[in-house]
Amino acid sequence: MSSQRPSAWYAVPAFGFFALFAALPMLLVIYLSFTAWDSLGTPQLNGGENWARLLDDAEARASVWRTLVLMVVSWLVQTPIALLIGVWAAGKQRSRAVLSSIFFLPLLLSTTAIALLWNALMEPNFGAFVGGPLFLGDPDIALYTVVLVISWQFIPFHTLLYQGAARAVPPSLYEAATIDGASRVGKFRHITLPQLRYTIVTSSVLMLVGSLTTFDTVLILTGGGPGTATRILPLHMYITGFKGFEMGYASAIAVVLVVLGTALSLAVMRWSGFRSMSSQQEGS
Amino acid sequence: MSRRSWVRPLLAMGLVAVTAVVSACGTSGPGESNAGSLKIWALEDPVLNKIEQKSIDSFKASGGNASLETFGNDPYKQRLRVAMGSPQAPDLFFNWGGGNLKEYVDAGKVADLTSVLEENKAAKDAFIPSVLDGAKLDGKYYGVPMRGMQPVLLFFNKKVFKDAGVEPPTTWDQLLTLVDTFKAKNITPIALAGSQAWTELMWAEYVLDRFAGHEVFKNIRDNGPAGWKDPAVVQAMAKLKELIDRGGFGQSFASVAYDAGGASTLLAQDKAAMHLMGTWEYTNQLDQSPDFVKQGNLGWVAFPSIPGGKGDPSNLVGNVSNFYSATADSKSLDAAKKFVTTTLHEDSYVDALIEAGDVPPVVGAEEKLKKSPNPEYASFIYELVLDTKNFQLSWDQDLPADDATFMLTQLQEFFLGKVSPQQFVDAVAAR
Amino acid sequence: MKSRPNWPAGLFALVWLAIVVGPLLYLVTVSLRSRAEYLGKSAWEIPDALTLDNYVTVLTGNFSQYLLNNVIVTVATVAIVVLVTVPAAYAVVRNTSPFLQRGFTLLLMGLAIPAQATIIPVYLMITRMRLYDTLTAVILPTAAFALPVAMLVLVNSLRDVPRELYEAQAIDGAGPLRVLVSLVLPLARPAIMTVVVYTALNAWNGFLFPLVLTQSESSRVLTLGLWDYQGQFGTNVPALLAAVTLSVLPIFAVYLIGRRFLLSGLTAGFGK
Asked: CB–CB of A40 and B84 under 8 A?
């Protein structure tokens, strides 16, 4: 019977392709982080010089901090809104169906399109808020403006996740609670939230990892400015590597990014007792 | 779902994919050039590229062989770096001279053109010496000028000045007074595209030059970042800070972009009075706000002098010119040398540059410039360059890329008031 | 299930509606204004006249070249991903060899790798392979980074196929290739659709790989083209926004036709 089963060769193209263009670069970036490479000529090993410099680099530390702020604030902003709207949109009423199909519209725009649109909206002299706050020009506000734009872009996506999950909550649970005289808020707290627990975890992981690796939005909106007010870690890497041509040092920053990303995913899953994403998933 | 209805689309898709990949490979640009034929790289420019192509065509007509490839600004620098380290290097490459070229010279990648220029006196003497010096490093010539000269000028809105009953500034103190005048009238005194640090850099360059002379930066470039510690730098930056704090640039400059036209439009829309920018601002305004230029409202002057400053008021900063340099290990080095000494000072090439609104870096062009589409403007620039004691290349082109990137970031922080003059100096000197 | 209307929630939804629709409205209305009107009037004033000039400006430029490049990148990426993952998922589900299972686990770990972090080595590899500034340079890494999610979706869907179906085919004497074509493909159809949509959206919207791996106009994709317009059009913001609007139209058309597929592709691997 075993001859009737597909041979392992069926998987070789996929695995090989992944190994070459995703796994190998992962290893290479670690190697490069121990080299000096100005992209002229070939990378030269320089020991731990990049790493020593990284520990000493105030700008890198600041960009890690900004990245963390961005992650936490955008999680705090997005989660409640997406959760509430998702649950609301899960209702069967026609008005809700119509409205939620409008809510999903930002999903159709690429990050580039969204960043350009908001850039135009917030242009200080000709945009929609002339005379208002300097959304992109004030170093104390700019990072939160980025959060605003990211939220506008991604809340619909998370709303979609919550909507699907909320629809899968067995109606019998709500019916029983209604008979027990539970209030709407009570039902939300004691039925909806616990039932959506896995979705909250999934959505949080995606949000956190997503904001850790935010790049296009910030590059187009502010280019990391004003000054360095929005220079988050991926952007710091890009500027160091592709503007300053310090590819080795930029690779060290990239490794930090990978470590942060992996640690983050693991931490959230461990903390929530959520082991395997794959066991949850079903071709929706 | 029947089997067949699935297989066919999948096959079709596969076929499209293969075609796509193959065609993508096919259009990946010209392959390797043959020995003896020149591969020339230049910066993308819709107008100038045509002229450059013409010079190549005429070079071909006289028996040579060459081809031109062009790239946008940032990708150009990136790609050149990669190529110079590989066998795919071009034979002749466009550059800005100065420190930007020095990196390649230090890596042994650039051919010394001194002897060939000495042999071809006619070529050497055709260029304005101070411009030719833009690609002179350690006494040797590494490049030949190939595009117009682009000093930075102080542009102003004549209408706004007239309405306020004032004249453009010739001294720093007049500039400060003008700031107050325009602020009182609710007009941004100076438009600044502060989201792009190189626009701010122009101010730092001129202020340091006028205040302390051009030797201060020369020292930084030649002897390393410690040169920033010269007390003149802190003092010059303090002067600049005074201008910023006085509201000279308004409040919203930090998110205005030059590429997106923000600063130029403020000037054209009478919302700002002055704008410090490279000579390309003229073409840009003509393109974006033609009425503003045609009504004669766009004015320009040299940067004001600073009373008591050590710098010569005739000194300029900006893009001295652009240069062609030859790669040292090019198989077609002789052809490359022939190209730069024959085509770039030819009448047809120079005339074409002038026609395109450029001010070519050649001597004795006064008469020709009268045929320029903007004769008054072109002659003004030409005279400025002829009279200048020193033409300093933009610092970000004159420093190695990593130092330049770092300095630009610090400068942005400085304009935002996050970093004091002293802190700016400490940061850039510590590199 | 009949319930009384939830007023606070409805109000909240309306506020959110305004936040979502406001910028989109701005996008479309400004793209229909003339530049003079954009510069001279506040965004909130009603324009004197609407114009399609901006769209003409965009369409007579390089827009179609960028669009074509985007289509090539998207189609090729999707094709590669589907062609390699469908057999691989089939093998992972039906072949218990430890090599495969371990390989699959490793692949899933790829879900946590941010593509941004690998951009420097990818850049190094692409330039060494002499693929810099080709569409192929964009396609290869884009496809590689779409593999983990695609595999996850496909494997999960194939695991739901009852074993008896495979065995029935085997009794008929069908080899693995025939099983793949006649059983796996039809059964995995919804999952494949999800993979197609997910991969296509990623490729369509890709920014970083094209940014770093291409430079010339002939290999510029739409996202970069839009960004480039910002410099090219200057303060002709209406033209820029017209280009942005045009870039949204293809996806919008897909949304109108196959909303369900699009949304399932978006949440591929993360639904439920």
From this structure: yes
